Amino acid sequence: RRDRNSTELPSTPPSPPFKLPVIGHMHLIGSQLPHVSLRDLAAKHGPDVMLIHLGAVPTLVVSSPRAAKAVLRTHDLAFASRPRSMLTDIIMYGASDSCFAPYGDHFRKARKAVTVHLLSSKKVQSYRPVREEEVRLVLAKLRHHAAAPVDMSQLLQSFANDLICRTISGKFFCEEGRNEVFRDLVAANNALLGGFNLEAYFPGLARMRLISKLVGGRAMRVRRRWDQLLDNLIDDHLAIRLARTHDDDQHDTDFIDVLLSRQEEYGFHRDTIKALLIDMFEAGTDTTHLVLEYAMVELIRKPHVLAKLQDEVRSITPKGQDAVTEDDIVDMVYLKAVIKETLRLHPPGGLTIPHLAREDCAIVDGSYMIPAGTCVIINLWALNRHADYWDMPDEFMPGRFMDGINKGTNFQGQYFHFLPFGSGRRMCTGIHSATITLQIMLANLMYCFNWKLPSGMKEEDVDTTDVFGLAIHRKEKLFLVPQVA
Ligand code: HEM
């Protein structure tokens, strides 16, 4: 495949020098955060695209908006697959989920089921009472601890966990303490999938019996724990469905119900349902709460932005209400700008999940030939801070979305310098759910409380060091003192 306006033969993308035997360019990624090392390497060796070898795996790193557009829009179909790995095969039941599934009939079916039946804007709207109730629980906890330092990292993580547990499996999930088990399991998945996996970079090793036994054994233990939890949940739901009258059947209340009611239509095996549920647990927690935490970090470090946001939220919410509702946030334009700016500076993954080239493809005006089988990662963090598109790119300035060149820029996937949710066939399916959750929680934190740092701490003392896993997170926990407004 080639772009139409190309005149010269495409070449291999540039690569950094110093490729070593066996490890390739891995030593150049170093101990820094991968998205930062890759941005710095790209600036020197391939500002649009750069080919590196991570162990034995040829990997294209995409770092400019025009190259991202080539991969995610112009040649979206050619780059819409995912690399296989022994770990995702085990944990995601043969990669039969939507996140890690290779492109093909199964992926299209799985993605359709998720976008149409679980995460469409209408479906997300139907979970409004659940969201509002979970937000109220957070507000009650904060009121209880008012005037004392609160571990906001932990509070926001529990909020995101509990909310996703309830949308997946109804209220009884939390009541029976299963959300604790699930929290452990998501952490175990992250340790496996987010860590450095030898077998992913040296596929030859995966064929060696000792390595496959070690890595596979660890993954199988986690998988068995997921099986236990999810089989119980599915069996409980099946029993309740059997006991229901025909009329009740109209109401699919949670994700498990919805998937069970569509199982025949889509021809899903029980394992596929389990894989899709793990996706939702996994993608729905360690994204939303980290963005909320970063929003609070940025706001506490910029008191004038925090004050402006509070003014907006408090002036729009009707007098006498004890909390902000989802109707109230429709006109909160500064709230939305604050959330965009937080997502711009802190996109949770930093990089996309790896894509895989399905066929040979010439990209960026036919300049570079990418062979089938190349792994592709788009450095979203680097795009979101690209100096050609953003003024003072490292500064937290929500106003940039209200005036100036980025007025009106949104994260729906058509502005290739701002892609916190990705773009194209592999774009995040949770975008509606994530957006409304971020908005309603942040609006309420602003409406109900004034915020201070623990005594003796100044704004500049708030630690902003990041560490890398499946998502980027802050090294230190965030403690803040809420004061009832
Ligand atoms: C602030 C919150 C979130 C952000 C910034 C975010 C961002 C992303 C990104 C960048 C990708 C990868 C795109 C690619 O590989 O090209 C992704 C994939 C995905 N996200 Fe999200 N996400 C968020 C929340 C959620 C939520 C709440 C859910 C579901 C409940 C979700 C479900 C998924 C799924 C299923 C995929 C895989 C899509 C595919 O491969 O077809 N995400 N997300």
UniProtKB/TrEMBL annotation:
Positions annotated to bind heme: C428
Alphabetical list of Gene3D superfamilies matching this protein: Cytochrome P450
Protein's pathway: Secondary metabolite biosynthesis
The keyword Protease belongs to this UniProt entry's keyword annotation: no
Pfam family, one: p450
CDD domains for the chain: CYP71-like (cd11072)
Family, as annotated: Belongs to the cytochrome P450 family.
Protein name per Swiss-Prot or TrEMBL: Cytochrome P450
Origin organism lineage: Eukaryota, Viridiplantae, Streptophyta, Embryophyta, Tracheophyta
